[in-house]
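pinned: reference chain
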Amino acid sequence: MRAGVIGFGVGEQHAMAYAEDARARLVAICDPDPAKREAARARFPEAEILADPGEILARKDIDAVSIASPDDSHYGQIVAAIDAGKHIFVEKPVCLDKDELTDIHRRLQDKPELVFSSNLILRRSPRFQEIRRRIHAGDIGEPYYIEADYNYGRIHKIVDGWRGRIPNYSVMLGGGVHVVDLVLWIVGKRVVEVVALGNNFCTRNTAFGLDDFTVSLLRFEDGQVAKVAANFGCVMPHFHRLMVYGTGGTVDNDFDAARLWKSRDPEVAPEMIEAPYPGVRKGALIGDFIGAILDGTQGSVSREEVFATMAVCFAIDAAKASGKACRVAEIFPI
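pinned: its structure tokens
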């Protein structure tokens, strides 16, 4: 399987994964930045280094492409890759507009043979995998409420970096998408309705000018409720906070370990879940993507799951903008 990578920021992790997998050959890497091209040439001398993503997308000797360019480039590059018949692994978010999402979905309907996935990497964290396993094993009874916070802790990336130059940049699409997907993966059911609020207290005296914080309540089809937040301005290190409340227990993820509480008695200590966190490289899903292509499957992060996660994120932003509850099916009928 021959692969190309567009973007050599986080795309370097994609390139490493392709280069280390015996089932794949890294053919080309593209980045418009000369310094990044030099870095790519030094790191991957076996690959052709290009400046124009169109060259990778047009090449007939490339079967699959990783799209790790800035967020506002994703849609056009995805469309070009679909038209060229290439399998696609795209960094989050897939796109920045619900109409773009609908168009990508429509185009992929005509290409069922293509594998389409996104780098929703928290699914590969050993800590979250163990938490999910324990929940599905019934260790906390019936879950009824989840809290998941994407605490970015990297405010400079929206104040000084390329993210802050994207019109109407969404912190939910740009980061919160990870915890939205984490919650959907754990619950395994559809979100039907959301409400949302936001503010910009942390960046209101900067040039960013948009909400750096968004919080939303999600209602699932079976009545479960979740709260998800994208908190880009928080004064703390980068962290994915997760609490899952069930009728028979509670799981609380912290930096050092997750705690599984099975009693309301303050004298009873929780069980510690010490699986590594995050404990996963950013290119860890590439091997699964390669396997899906070779096996003719959709892999562990299927296109349907990607669209479901993106639909919830767009519904959250729509609810925040309108000040009203938003049904996910009104944004994207899943």
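why pinned: The mean pLDDT is 97. The domain at 2-114 is CATH 3.40.50.720 (Rossmann fold).
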